[in-house]
Amino acid sequence: MAQKPGIPKGTRDFSPSEVAKRNYIFDKIKKHFRTFGFLPIETPSFENSETLLGKYGDEGDRLIFKILNSGDFIGKVDDVTYSSKNSNSLAPKIAEKALRYDLTVPFARYVVMHQNEIDFPFKRYQIQPVWRADRPQKGRFREFYQCDADVVGADSLLQEVELIQLYDAVFTDLKLEVVNIKLNNRKILSGIAETIGAKNLLAHFTIALDKLDKIGEEGVKKEMLEKGISKESIEKLSPLFSLSGSNSEQLESLRQLLSNSDEGSTGVEELAFIVNTIDNMGLQSAKLSIDVTLARGLNYYTGAIFEVAAPVGVDMGSIGGGGRYDDLTRIFGLKDVSGVGISFGLDRIYLVLEELNLFPESVDQSLDVLCLNFGDNEALAALKLVNSLRKSGIKTDLYPSNTKIQKQFKYANNRNVSYVILLGEEELKNESFVVKNMGSGEQKTYALSNVANFIETV
Fold first, then answer.
1. Is there a contact between 353 and 443 (Cβ–Cβ < 8 Å)?
2. CB of 386 within 8 A of CB of 420?
3. What are the helix (H) ranges across 54-198?
4. Cα–Cα dist 398/415, whole Å
5. Which value, in Å, is the radius of gyration of the alpha carbons in the chain?
6. Backbone angles phi, psi at 432, to 5 degrees
7. How does pLDDT run across 381-435, given as a tens digit for each residue?
8. Is 402 exposed, middle or buried (0-12, 13-18, 19+ CB in 10 A)?
9. Nearest CA among 154, 22, 391, 385 for reference residue 399
10. Start-end ranges of CATH 3.30.930.10 in the chain?
11. Domain 365-455: which topology?
């Protein structure tokens, strides 16, 4: 017996119903991307390894899927490198390409390559899959879609304000209300690291802090200690973990805490501008809150950072995130191009909508009308009727074979069909057709010469 096939861990097949629900989310997000003036682009699923490596920190680099070179890739490796059995020195020689880890770094590469064709500021959105060699768990996959919106070529903090409004608009439209948009600034984290004497260990500091919700305060402190941050420095962090109160109260505490750090003070004032502007503008349903422990452990962030938490009571990690990266294009040779962007976690948003039963019933409505098949002559007449309905934009199908009517009705029920058309021998003689409303059970007869009367009711 042939072995049952499988798929790699962290990947999924999607049923028609699941695809319909995913497309529902895509359509909502795209609608607001376009409303806010963003333009679509696409980039290849894989990039040159050198484009991706070194942009996400050591932990990010370890999660990048590398693609083996074509042909005899081992034969091109010198004996010294091969015998060393060192993956770090071997990988660049046998894997010159890699699957993209996110959409931001490929976007930076795109901007540099197409800078003469782009009108700055450039607002782009991109919805494509990415791949990460992560440990699969609930809401975390190795292949998943990202939905990004970014602005490059504008350093105004109004862009951050607009992106918060974009989050609010999308989640309100999805009926996913009272999400918490958490806000921080990497300059504040840098200022804190400077204040506690760990400025030279900023990367380790932010990576450890970014794990707070996973390993807790004691776990973060332990990791910082292991990374070389002194016990005295860690003790100075205590006010950070206990910071509470309203946004304005937290801002005032931060001003005092970072009064001796120019960079940290700048971060506080940037945060204050965003918060105050949003307070004046208002949000439809989302909540904006400062979270000074928010780190987002990606090396390229330089200013404001965002993370969106699911509604209270839903056991799910963040469903969106992003931030400002003021000079990401420098790594590809284009200096002084400011950028800021956000991402929607499609797969997690899907799971949250499913858990809260927020998908509309109509999203599974793949077929509006099904014509039953009573035989060759009847089917031919039914097919003409089907074509008329399709031209009017009604999702219609003809059951392909003349089988038991009970079986055909069962098929209609399984497809959540709203109307079933019966066009049998008697109806053919009378040049009519019978429509059964599958919801109410009501049946009504229409003339084949006046299909428009039925179309008006669908």
1. no
2. no
3. 57-62, 79-84, 87-94, 104-113, 158-173, 186-195
4. 13
5. 28
6. -140, 175
7. 999 999 999 999 999 999 999 999 999 999 999 998 999 999 999 999 999 999 9
8. middle
9. 385
10. 16-64+101-355
11. Rossmann fold (3.40.50)
DSSP 315-383: ---EEEEEEE-TTGGGGGT--S--EEEEEEEHHHHHHHHHHTT-S-GGGG---SEEE----HHHHHHHH
Q: What are the DSSP calls for 187-254, one per residue? A: HHHHHHHHHTT-GGGHHHHHHHHTTHHHHHHHHHHHHHHHTT--HHHHHTTHHHHH--S-HHHHHHHH
Strands 339-345 and 143-152: antiparallel
Q: Is 16-64+101-355 a domain of CATH 3.30.420.10?
A: no
Whole-number Å distance between alpha carbons of 317 and 27: 23
* Orientation angle between helical segments 186-195 and 247-257, nearest 10 degrees: 40
Question: At residue 31, what is the residue type?
Answer: K
What is the mean pLDDT, run by run of 10 residues, along the chain of 458 residues? 87 93 97 98 96 84 89 70 65 84 93 94 96 85 94 94 97 92 92 78 73 78 81 75 87 89 94 97 95 77 92 86 87 88 92 94 88 95 95 95 95 93 95 95 94 91
Amino acid symbol at 94: I
Q: How do the residues of the chain divide into helix, strand and coil, expressed in percent and rounded to 5?
A: 45, 20, 35
Which pair of tokens denotes residue 255?
């001003």
- The model's pTM: 0.85
Contact (CB, 8 A) for 267 and 187: yes
The whole-angstrom separation of Cα 105 and Cα 142 is: 18
Strands 432-437 and 287-290: unpaired
- Cα–chain center distance at 404: 45
129 prior amide bond cis, ω within 30: no
Q: Where in the chain is the domain with CATH 3.40.50.800?
A: 365-455
- Lookup: tokens for 233: 């420095």
